From TrEMBL:
Designated name of the protein: UDP-N-acetylglucosamine 2-epimerase (Non-hydrolysing)
Gene name, Swiss-Prot/TrEMBL: wecB
Assigned keywords, A-Z: Isomerase
Residues annotated as domain UDP-N-acetylglucosamine 2-epimerase: 5-304
Keyword Isomerase: yes
Record Pfam families: Epimerase_2
Recorded GO MF terms: isomerase activity
Family according to the record: Belongs to the UDP-N-acetylglucosamine 2-epimerase family.
Length: 341
């Protein structure tokens, strides 16, 4: 099955995107909109947004493709600033907006921020919504979009490819460590909350060695607030730069447990059966909650109880063997492209 497409890069995960493209064997040359320094702050994000919008506006014929009938689809994913950018420019240029991972919501408009707002805005602008489960479908009951239930998120396909490539987890978890990954806007830019998160990670380090994976934005905040030395002086915390997807999956698949504020991580780890401490007060995803994952609400007692009862959350893997959501999406888009000539 062949569906002609253009891959548009807006600078997200700039440092690791080249590695991702190679690891997943993507041969299509990307259309690069932004190749500057990766955004690591709110001010930079605003500047990035307008730069990308302007570049897409003046290069629209190079960026967007349409068939002979003038029909084109713009596929966007998730809840990032790139998702919102794609929806806006797609609407501006008359493309049909296709939202993958649609229908997720926390029911709290400002938590997480700005992701929840982005999801709600994009939901109103989308023409086709690919939802990763019946819960997400129900959230779009009043939507104008054509809704398709893919059963699970396309993330499960990425995970399956990574596991096949690196043979992650063979022989079980061989080292006694935890992994921490914290990067969400509402966490790292809230000084008080971020301080609590660091204290909780330090608390965990008294019981397990912690491998703290630093996103560029997280590292920038740690350096700005002069907190890096405090973490470096802790012999039970290892600071590592954000790595490629395959490498990260290899790392977390062998961990005793993972501390994260990422919804994608929460979902990936539910498929792997890895106990997960979600560093948030609410999540837009249902995967893992009550089986592999606990929302800690930044409470020390919850963290300690979680570590004390890891066996309760371990080994309940949802697996990656069900029908491919990515293939379902490709088939539907191929059908539409063929019908519209």
């Amino acid at each position: 099955m062949h569906v002609p497409f253009r891959m548009i890069l807006t600078g997200q995960h700039q440092e690791t995107m080249g590695l991702l493209i190679r690891q997943f064997g993507i041969k299509t040359a990307p259309v690069i909109i932004y190749d500057g320094k990766e955004v690591a702050g709110v001010g930079q994000m605003i500047f990035w947004f307008f730069i990308c919008f302007f570049k897409i506006f003046i290069r629209s014929r190079d960026v967007f493709a349409r068939n002979a009938a003038g029909v084109g689809y713009l596929l966007i994913h998730g809840d990032t600033a790139s998702t919102l950018l794609g929806a806006l420019v797609g609407r501006l240029f008359g493309l049909s907006i296709v939202h993958v991972e649609a229908g997720l919501c926390s029911k709290r408009i400002f938590d997480p921020f700005p992701e929840e707002i982005i999801r709600r805005v994009v939901a109103k602008m989308s023409d086709i919504a690919f939802c990763p489960g019946s819960w997400a479908v129900a959230n779009l009951a009043t939507s104008r979009s054509f809704v398709v239930n893919t059963g699970r998120n396309t993330l499960v396909d990425s995970l399956a490819i990574a596991l096949e490539s690196i043979k992650a987890g063979e022989g079980g978890r061989i080292d006694n460590y935890a992994v921490a990954s914290v990067h969400r806007t509402e966490n790292i830019f809230n000084k008080k909350r971020f301080s609590v998160i660091l204290e909780l990670i330090e608390e965990v380090s008294r019981q397990r060695h912690v491998v703290f994976v630093l996103h560029p934005s997280t590292q920038r905040i740690l350096e700005k607030r002069r907190l890096m030395s405090r973490l470096r002086l802790n012999p039970n915390i290892s600071l590592v730069a954000r790595m490629g997807y395959f490498e990260f999956i290899g790392l977390v698949s062998r961990a005793d447990f993972v501390i994260t504020d990422g919804g994608g991580n929460q979902e990936e780890l539910s498929y792997l059966g890895i106990p997960t401490l979600v560093m948030r007060t609410v999540t837009e995803r249902s995967e893992g909650i009550g089986s592999t994952a606990v929302i800690c609400c930044f409470e020390r007692a919850v963290v300690n109880n979680f570590i004390a009862s890891l066996d309760k959350f371990s080994g309940k893997a949802e697996g990656t063997s069900l029908p491919s959501p990515s293939r379902m999406i490709a088939v539907e888009l191929k059908r539409r492209v063929d019908v519209n000539g």
